[in-house]
Batch of 2 targets.
Target 1
Amino acid sequence: MGIPRFLRHFCVFPKLTTTIQHQPRGIPERLSPSCGSNMHFHNWLNGLYQCLSKPSGRTTQLTCGSLSRSLVLSSHRRNPEFSSFVARTNTCGELRSSHLGQEVTLCGWIQYRRQNIFLVLRDFHGLVQVVIPQDESAVKKILCEAPVESVVQVSGTVISRPPGQENPKMPTGEIEIKVKSAKLLNSCKKLPFEIKDFVKKTEALRLKYRFLDLRSFQMQYNLRLRSQMVMKMREYLCNLHGFVDIETPTLFKRTPGGAKEFVIPSREPGKFYSLPQSPQQFKQLLMVGGLDRYFQVARCYRDEGSRPDRQPEFTQIDIEMSFVDQTGIRSLIEGLLQYSWPSDKDPVVVPFPSMTFAEALATYGTDKPDIRFGMKIVDISDVFRNTEVKFLQDALSKPEGSIKAICIPDGTKYLKKKDIESITKFATDYSDQEVLPVFLKANRNWNSPVVKFIKDEQKLELIRLMEIQEEDMVLLTAGEHKKACALLGKLRLECADLLEARGVLLRDPTLLSFLWVVDFPLFLPKEENPGELESAHHPFTAPHTSDIHLLYTEPEKVRSQHYDLVLNGNEIGGGSIRIHDAKLQHYILATLLKEDVKLLSHLLQALDCGAPPHGGIALGLDRLICLVTGAPSIRDVIAFPKSFRGHDLMSNAPDSVPPEELKPYHIQVLWPKDTEA
Amino acid sequence: MGIPRFLRHFCVFPKLTTTIQHQPRGIPERLSPSCGSNMHFHNWLNGLYQCLSKPSGRTTQLTCGSLSRSLVLSSHRRNPEFSSFVARTNTCGELRSSHLGQEVTLCGWIQYRRQNIFLVLRDFHGLVQVVIPQDESAVKKILCEAPVESVVQVSGTVISRPPGQENPKMPTGEIEIKVKSAKLLNSCKKLPFEIKDFVKKTEALRLKYRFLDLRSFQMQYNLRLRSQMVMKMREYLCNLHGFVDIETPTLFKRTPGGAKEFVIPSREPGKFYSLPQSPQQFKQLLMVGGLDRYFQVARCYRDEGSRPDRQPEFTQIDIEMSFVDQTGIRSLIEGLLQYSWPSDKDPVVVPFPSMTFAEALATYGTDKPDIRFGMKIVDISDVFRNTEVKFLQDALSKPEGSIKAICIPDGTKYLKKKDIESITKFATDYSDQEVLPVFLKANRNWNSPVVKFIKDEQKLELIRLMEIQEEDMVLLTAGEHKKACALLGKLRLECADLLEARGVLLRDPTLLSFLWVVDFPLFLPKEENPGELESAHHPFTAPHTSDIHLLYTEPEKVRSQHYDLVLNGNEIGGGSIRIHDAKLQHYILATLLKEDVKLLSHLLQALDCGAPPHGGIALGLDRLICLVTGAPSIRDVIAFPKSFRGHDLMSNAPDSVPPEELKPYHIQVLWPKDTEA
């Protein structure tokens, strides 16, 4: 739901990231694959493999010597052989003094050349300096004439750099390569733009030339870390806990209410497959089939048009278990994240705290609270029970009416007049004037249009209730409980942005604040028709056992066995215990949700054939990796992402298809009227 | 290409499979999830986890005692915890005498009940006997009244069976469970057919009720083995050799000549995504992007209508490397298969032999020879240079004309008249009478319509050339080289079927005959227009280095750097070294293949930006697992396969979609004329 706030804020505070070693945060150099200042290239790679190699919570025994020897890529603690089967003996980044005298063959891209004497060669592993032999004219010609970003193979000896010429900033800075032979593997004919300019290019240009953008440190780091984390998740699930990795179809049929599903015409007239939004039905059917511990790194599809930071296809770590309850799923996931988390980050502390949906809404105004900082919402209705302020009176007199407030620490110090105007405008835009924010300054001179109507004892009570300090600022609003909370939840994050833009540290991006949010409502009133109900999540979610009786009397009050996993204010996963009783499932589908039961007859039938109790969860992998790497967008952790508008800017997908290729599928394009004229 | 012959033959010889321990081959019991004779259920599971646990080529040190202790699921050699996080303490199949006295909680399905005294409980791990307490009326009621296939939870003590009542055939046969409490987790209300009848049900019924079919031993075994093998492949690629697992998009644009690609309408009028047949372009672009060791367990899509043993979506182990040659890829794959192969099978012996395409065609009449048995094609043209037989004379006088033969050992003994008629008919049907088979009996009385025209010295020469023994039968044909070979290649397999149907062992299914086939032609004449060329595989395949000059003079003679991996006559993989030179790629696309280069402009541009030399391969996972498990069809190694006609018989996909749901995609159904009338 909504914009990933954490990511936006993250960019505001690059300085906060310097506590993380070996990993370039922010994006200053990501777009310059060939600029000369990339000596810390080694560092991040070194850091990447080191941090990923350590089983969580333990120390790695790194052998000194060559980098490749110290790369331990999984709990196997066996060194991956990066140069097996190929035409190099070593990677560019791994050579050290311990290799002195060794004959090596390297393959890489020409990073830059200095006065036709030195050449710096790059691969994914790092940079190495190559001495261009001045007396071997053929070799010299190759190495001096090949344009930057050309691919060459060089063979030679690892030698010491002359005294005084070592480069301590460069992991390979003590050595260089005395070349005996060289081969131009491919000349870089033309780059689509000057490399220097590339830094300033838009994301659109990066996406169009993704094959070049992938050469950047950040993309290499992100994609390699993603691969490693997923591998460790697989080890945890498959090897440690006996889960079975099962692939489920992506050519499926539309699900009830599946308005966001892509359709795929088949060769039968009028018959379409759909690309499922998740393997939900399949994983439940696997439980019925006795495959009682399922997982899949599942590709899912959602046609959401141009919602920011969404992709039409995305990946989730999809999990389902039989004979499990909420506690079991939570422990499993806590262990999974702890096991797979890169060890250069703060270790994942388990168990994660949990909070009910009602509490999250009342305290943070959202179902995905960022609990790294305070500024909690406080209900101050009681302070104003006897208020004379008209709009507060009005609010309290209505059903669910309330007065709420948040306290912004040092708000009067950091927030300027235009900030307050922007907050007011945001509140007005957001809440359509149904709720009205009020500003109070909590210093000696309370400062607000309504302050004169607030009695002294009310002020004292507010200071007590909200622990208001000098220079704090209070945002107050009145209205229906949920709306008032939701608005203050938004304002809380808005204000955090503003404070951080002023240099106040509120949300430490190195902190991992995991949180379970539980006890969601099972149903919500339909937006278009509030008299009817729709599933808050999906119709297979089991009701809270203690609320089952309410299903037949006040279904809108039933809480569900759904749970969300939140990390620093981002929803990174969600799941539930499912309904395994066919009669209950039928009642909810047919009677409460008024869905066409026929579309799900196979599932209802399956539940009647000895379906075990079961539950599961799905983690959004793209978002999770985004948070782990500190990438500003999920597009930075996906090799070939689509643009905001769902386009592949590199290949130009989607594209026109000639009518004759549509014929076998019995469809034709229905051109919009306005383009026909 | 064509029908997976191995699989057909496999079913003919269940007796050959008895050498494989712990794994039920054939299908006699696969369709009876609840029949009472499934005591070897334990065995296969035991075997499965044991065989998968051993690193190839080494012996596993299994600890005695409980099965769960001896389950070592990967090279980690750490026991997976099958009962972590869930409401059981143990699986049904793991209990032994060593557990005597333990308090256990089990969850499972009621397999059967004997006289309301015993109940056999089943989970994926095996069966266990539960004693129904006669004096606890509540517990007794639950356990006696729950229908078969209901799900129950029982808690109790592991006790010895009374002397004489042990069941040595049952791994848990020494113990039983003295139940203290029981809970009916879900009653099996109705099964869609009588379990007894299920055995005889068609595959269509199995697919319709897949959630029940998955409970069968065979499906559990196949899917669990698949998961384990893929996990070991990942360990090999990712942990041992530094490959990066990268997900590539499945919403792409159509590729030139991509007539078999599903189209997906987008929300832009007339613009469509395509589901790619493989990540070919993406993996090459990753190489350009410096991600020099890529792999992915990739979902691919091909709309082939109703070709047997194909699925509209399938999975391949997709691999690409930079700076590699054919030898490197071959070694990588040989190591991969050796590492991941289940250790209860014969170990994979490397390196695999290799054979040129020309040799495979000349000797076996196919590009995927089954080299487990002889009956090779012999060119006997020279024997008949001076023949008086008219049709042989005619054949030899034509370009590429030849006379070929295969020798069927003991053919006269095993092949009956009707077999010969059926072979003749097959040959006539297959070759459209362009080539004519001739039957000779190689015993004292040569027996064939044309035998009188064959001179004695010709007979002697044939016997010498083809090493004909008494009672052998020779199949002879004359015609253009390729056609003659292709026909005899088919007849060779036909005859092998016939001989094996008579009980002759020709193709040992436990034998693993891997074979590399290399040096394919780069181009083939187009079927519809033989004057033009098309790629034999795909347009990115690099030409053989020694044939490059022919590209500009006689392109049809150019051999490619493509290679296929064949196992027992099945193509299980294929790949190539790719073109990394933009000019060469452009020449082949535009000049030789006359493709629209614009559709691939991004790839051509990428090649010009410093593309490293690279190559790769894709293994067909479904087919591979099929061969490893001995399953008769790839539908038996896929959890939710489509039918022959591409239908999901369980959910009824593809399905109708209301016109209003098509509107956002700007398409409408074009109903065929004949249904409009």
Target 2
Amino acid sequence: MGRLSLLLLAFLTPGAAIPVPPALRAFSNLHLSSSFTSRPAIVMNYSIHYIEQKVDHFGFSTDKTFKQRYLIADKYWKKDGGSILFYTGNEGDIIWFCNNTGFMWDVAEELKAMLVFAEHRYYGQSLPFGVNSFKDSRHLNFLTSEQALADFAELIQHLKTTIPGAENQPVIALGGSYGGMLAAWFRMKFPHMVVGALAASAPIWQFEDLVPCGVFMEIVTTDFRKSGPHCSESIRRSWDAINRLTRTGTGLHWLSEALHLCTPLTNPQDGQRLKDWISETWINLAMVDYPYQSNFLQPLPAWPIKVVCQYLKNPNVSDSQLLQNIFQALNVYYNYSGQARCLNISETSTKSLGSLGWSYQACTEMVMPFCTNGINDMFEPNSWDLQVFSDECFRQWGVRPRPSWITAMYGGKNISSHTNIVFSNGDLDPWSGGGVTKDITDTLVAITIPDGAHHLDLRANNAYDPKTVLLARSLEVRYMKQWIGDFYASRRKKH
Amino acid sequence: MGRLSLLLLAFLTPGAAIPVPPALRAFSNLHLSSSFTSRPAIVMNYSIHYIEQKVDHFGFSTDKTFKQRYLIADKYWKKDGGSILFYTGNEGDIIWFCNNTGFMWDVAEELKAMLVFAEHRYYGQSLPFGVNSFKDSRHLNFLTSEQALADFAELIQHLKTTIPGAENQPVIALGGSYGGMLAAWFRMKFPHMVVGALAASAPIWQFEDLVPCGVFMEIVTTDFRKSGPHCSESIRRSWDAINRLTRTGTGLHWLSEALHLCTPLTNPQDGQRLKDWISETWINLAMVDYPYQSNFLQPLPAWPIKVVCQYLKNPNVSDSQLLQNIFQALNVYYNYSGQARCLNISETSTKSLGSLGWSYQACTEMVMPFCTNGINDMFEPNSWDLQVFSDECFRQWGVRPRPSWITAMYGGKNISSHTNIVFSNGDLDPWSGGGVTKDITDTLVAITIPDGAHHLDLRANNAYDPKTVLLARSLEVRYMKQWIGDFYASRRKKH
């Protein structure tokens, strides 16, 4: 099992090449239409800006700079008693995150807040070496979380010195997924820049042996087990069925037809690629198992796993019947619109995510061990093998992972001296397994959302929101108001 | 006015070359004998170790490593209820700091402490590229405070995993001068590694406009004004006298003889070098104006400025008489032993400090503005000119300073969310002007030592210690005990 990215799931066996999504572009674009976005009510008006950033904040032998993109929305911002909500961008195009973080837009008026969305270096348009950014490990050398946090610090400094009225306002960091990790780490490392952080679905403990490597896939499995009778059992049985079918040319041909694959499977090794792609699909579904029709990674119906599981009620069927059922299930994810002509096993989600960048990050700092045993989870057994992983990283990027670095840098479980961080997690979200789901101190608090998938709380208000997410959001607003209030109280005391 | 290093004072006008101390080696070595060291009582027994460190903690394109040196003294260490005192080494040979930080040795038994002294990269024996370390800006690229802090984090991690009994012990960071800045910053950035920090004479605010650029030289001046009648006035008058004398060949020749210079002054430009060297001498004296005979930067009598000022009682004398008096005063600093045959204006202090390294650091991160106006201080007026400074840095190292980086990185004056840092400062120490001399919060506290020069509190107990430093040390021990106690109390609560 290889690099499991946070949003873009490059869920690969070692040795597999990183998929550079080539096709189905038309299909994807078709559905970025408004009927699937969750925000028809509020118009997201933002201005686009660029700041000149040092390529290397931590070394002086080069003074090279690049343009980092960021967005500003200040419709509800008040210079008097206002605040700045700062989205610490993660592995993708910042406009996509902006459009998928309706929570910030929903609370802007109440917090008199300016919204800022900062793009993460090496993603979207913020490419330190332009088209050459992913050329080799020398160009990728500056793709680290530390450099990204330093970008955020410089950007906040810049906003405070150039926007009249911004200087004396409290800034709050917000982010989801890897962006949530960055929000939490930013508060830990730059508490002089932000008064607090909302880290939504941030698996800051998905490293080394901080949590069991199997927990992620166990949560995926639980989601399927609870969403329909025999659902996870059907999936568990499907792997051997695929193994049997991919042994022969006839089987490969049949499978390619049955699954409507755009590119037919031609050899037994393709079987592994197929299984990886299907696994990733189930994982993605677990992440976006939202209670309403949505379009985050793909256009999907409400509670998509329930819909998927309607096709997977009976595990005790023939291999061919089981795989035909699996096709119906996959179709829920890949063809909710009904317009896809074939399925492409080289891609699983939106083009807005940067697969190359995350693949490199997973091979350097973001070394997240994953494993399965086929017993507590519905997948084929797969142990975590750092050496194999490392060799594959070296082959692909010329770098070796440093698995203990993130813990040394950011503290692992020993973070109780920090303050003002809210960690929110949805119980349906497999990433909650590596997240902070219990209060650490009075000011390092955990909010759990029983019916929530991956950072549901960051999404816009929706009529179908479960009560638990409404409660979570209102708690989050309360904490943010508290930080803002403390900031102004402490300023008044000084003057 | 150029780079003012913390201990090694490369106090240069822009355009002057960095002095690479060439001579008087025999003279210096002579006086590193026991009669001048302040610690004849306790034997400093330590073992020497090396740890393999990444040259670049913040990038992955190179996996190159180097050997960082560190010292361990564990005579009084107890595995049961003990602690680890970790000296965050600064710009010099770690053995020299070890020998000059008697305080740690004095409190080791009381705190059941293991002492660890970690050498700063690019100093002493800890050279990332061996003899080529200072060759060019490419080799120097990894000489930053962030890399040094990461070294410390990795070293502590290493000690905890390799020394049985160390794992569950509280670590406290200690340091003086730049080492004190590192101790404070280490607690700020890596609070999961150390329970607290003692930052002695740490001018963390000697950056940008956090304090007035003139404060440093004003304190130097005050030290001389208070140490004898007309003392600072004599020095103030000496600059013009030198200017007049260095205008002619006869004057240059006379001055070279009168000051017993090893290398005669040959042209008017040498006048500036001479003045810089004399200025540095007064600054150094202000730093080491200790109440007893000592040998930190040079072998010196007790209260050396008072001794110096005995020769500078009368400012209203002829130029030649004034300079003869200045020679007598300089002689206190450069020839307390009486064995120096001549004075070398290319050096001002011990060889244990790394002048090249600090010159580079001052040209990159450690951009400390200094200025004089000749009114509030006894020096020739000199304004802070960043552009000139930057150009000189570029000429010498091929790098440009980033004057606002340290504030962005470490918070400037906005550090109140951190905890457990004691900032100690001596009122006689010119670096106190850039230090924290007032409590920020209950756990970010300032200790001032009215009769103290540069980190007097870190020096070994001495019969001539003023009461104020004894009080400071006992407060420091009390805080450290509190941090250690809190650590063990919180551990007991968990189990």
